[in-house]
Structure formats: C-alpha cells, structure tokens
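Design request, tokens follow.
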C-alpha cells in the first residue's frame, strides 16, 4: 500500500513525502522591481520547516513591466539571481526542493494595466478584467518563448531545483489554449495542437537553455468549464500526453478560476465542512495520470489525509499539492505526520489577499 509519507522522486529530485506546496502569489516581493524580499525569505523558511517535500513559488514574471499583479516575483534579469540564491539556500537547509513558477499575465491583469501595453493571443475583451489586449505578433510570441527560457536559466543559476510553466488559471498561456480568447488564424490558433504550440515551444526553449538535468513542470487546467467556448478536458488530455512525449517531468492538474463568471471563483466554499467537496479536480487528474508515464500532482482542496490516501491507492496520481491549507498553517504536513486525523484550520473564507498585508491568512496577520 502506498503512503503519503513515502520517499519518492522524479528527474534528479528526491522527495521526502508526497506533499507539494502549490504556487501562491504572496504579494510580498520587493515593491520596486520584484526581487526577493526579507518577507519572502521568512515565509518560505516557515513553509520549508513545515514538512512539505517541495515548494513551488508564487509566480514570477519573465518580461520587464509585464507583471499582472502587485509585488510579484521577477525573473526577467540576471540581477535577480543573487536573491534567488538566498531563497534557495534557506529552503534547501531543510531538505526541501524549491521550484520557481514562471508566468505571463496577458489581459488577466490587475496592476498598472492602464499605463502599459497588454498583450494577448487575440484582441478579445477579458470576461473578468474588461481589458482588451493587443494581439501578439509572431515576433512577440517568439520573444516570450525565449523569455521563459532565459528566466529558467536564471532560476537554475539561482539554485532552484526546477521551474514550473504556469499554463492555468486564465493567465496568458492559458488564454492561448482557450478558443474563446484565442481566435488566431496562424500556426498558434485553430486546432488544439496550434493553440498549445506556444506552450510546447516554451518548454523546448527552457529545456534547451536550462539543460536535461533541470526539472521542468507545468500547471494546467483540466478544463476552463466555459462550455463550448473554453478549453475542454479532452484538449487538456491531449496537451498533457504531448508534453509527456516531449519529456516534461511533472504535470500539476488544476482548473478554471472563473473566466465564465463575473468574478473569479478562487475556491469552493465550505470545503472544510464537506468531505465530498474536497479534492475536486482528482477525477480529472486520475484520467490524465492514466494517460501519461510521468508523475501527476493534483491541487484543489486537499484537506483530508485519509481521502488523499484513498486517491493515492486507487489511481496513478502520485502527489498532492496544497495551497491555502499551507497558507493558513505552514506546518500542516508535520501535523499530519504526527496525527493523520488532524483537520486543517483553513475555513475557505477567501480573505487571504490584501494589498496592505499581502497574501497572508487572516489568522496569521499582525495587527498594525
């Protein structure tokens, strides 16, 4: 029988258990340029001490001035490597791997969007932000593909164990996958193979620049849940199988955060009370895990230790990604190690984010 505290590994990484801290934007990078701040160092040290095997950082932007949200980590210049080294050295002290998530925002932008050019696959108004982006040219796309590769090389020089391509949650790469947002007529539009082409080329550019020994992961939606307008589950399966063939190292399955809504639906309410509402992307992840030869991790209200153990043994899913659960309690994995029946403290209130405090659980904010 497989257990959540099994020692496993992929690529050249050793994992002391099957728990991965999924990426969360902290909103606490240096406010001037996105470099690693003392607050970021403190947060990640607490998470590393808390028991997870691997940390995926909050997303980092790869093109200067393209950050879609406030105080976001940056990876567009070599000057950030020094800060990366400080961060990775701290995390590695605790026997924990650390992965830098790389992203591009597109029209899902909340920060400074009136003062800069916003690009997208097509000039289609975003359902939530109301922003109509400039359609990217072939040259724009090629530059972005190289920007991801360059950022991955900086991550490697900075001591990261790998990078994760953020192709989920409505950001730019996710928009390319969506037939609603991607109405191009060239090689990047139309069929799912064309709409995913930018992701395939981003992966190839990262692999070429960072090397075969560097772990490359992807976070991808199982579906946009936009009915006929969106990226559907069968298309997600196609992209995952293709990336498996290309040699990506781990796929993290997530889902739409509400692009068909009037506002983002970040997390389902009351998951802490109702076990049936937990692990809500696991049925999709199970099918994708059957399709591919590489490890699959699933995110989405992974709260119940016994439920995760059941999924682990009833499927090919190998890892479980924790987001707000760890935001509330950095040491939740250590607590499960001592007591598998422990119930996490997160109540799914969605009050984490604050411009004043950053993305910090309301139970952990200091009064000021």
């Amino acid at each position: 029988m497989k257990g959540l505290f099994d020692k496993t590994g992929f690529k050249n990484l050793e994992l002391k258990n099957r728990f991965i801290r999924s990426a969360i934007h902290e909103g606490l990078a240096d406010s001037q340029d996105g470099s690693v701040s003392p607050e970021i160092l403190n947060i990640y040290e607490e998470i590393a001490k808390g028991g997870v095997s691997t940390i995926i950082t909050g997303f980092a932007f790869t093109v200067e001035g393209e950050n879609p949200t406030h105080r976001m980590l940056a990876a567009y210049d070599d000057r950030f490597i020094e800060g990366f080294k400080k961060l990775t050295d701290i995390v590695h002290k605790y026997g924990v791997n650390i992965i830098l998530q790389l992203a591009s925002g597109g029209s899902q932008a909340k920060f400074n969007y009136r003062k800069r050019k916003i690009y997208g696959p097509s000039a289609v108004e975003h359902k939530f932000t109301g922003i109509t982006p400039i359609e990217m040219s072939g040259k724009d796309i090629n530059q972005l593909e190289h920007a991801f590769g360059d950022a991955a090389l900086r991550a490697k020089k900075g001591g990261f164990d790998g990078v994760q391509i953020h192709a989920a949650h409505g950001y730019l790469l996710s928009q390319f996958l969506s037939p609603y947002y991607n109405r191009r007529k060239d090689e990047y539009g139309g069929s799912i193979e064309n709409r995913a082409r930018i992701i395939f080329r981003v992966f190839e550019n990262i692999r070429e620049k960072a090397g075969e020994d560097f772990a490359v992961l992807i976070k991808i939606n199982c579906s946009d849940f936009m009915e006929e307008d969106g990226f559907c589950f069968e298309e997600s399966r196609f992209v995952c199988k293709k990336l498996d063939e290309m040699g990506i190292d781990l796929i993290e399955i997530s889902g739409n955060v509400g692009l068909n809504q009037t506002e983002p639906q970040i997390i389902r309410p009351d998951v802490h009370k109702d076990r049936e509402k937990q692990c809500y992307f696991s049925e999709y992840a199970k099918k994708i895990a059957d399709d591919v030869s590489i490890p699959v991790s699933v995110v989405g209200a992974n709260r119940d230790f016994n439920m995760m153990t059941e999924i682990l043994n009833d499927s090919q899913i190998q890892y479980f990604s924790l987001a707000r659960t760890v935001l509330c309690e950095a040491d939740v994995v250590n607590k499960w190690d001592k007591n598998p029946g422990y119930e996490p403290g997160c109540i799914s209130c969605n009050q984490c984010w604050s411009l004043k405090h950053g993305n910090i659980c309301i139970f952990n904010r200091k009064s000021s």
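Comment from the thread starter after seeing the answer: thanks! The first strand starts at residue 8 and ends at 10.
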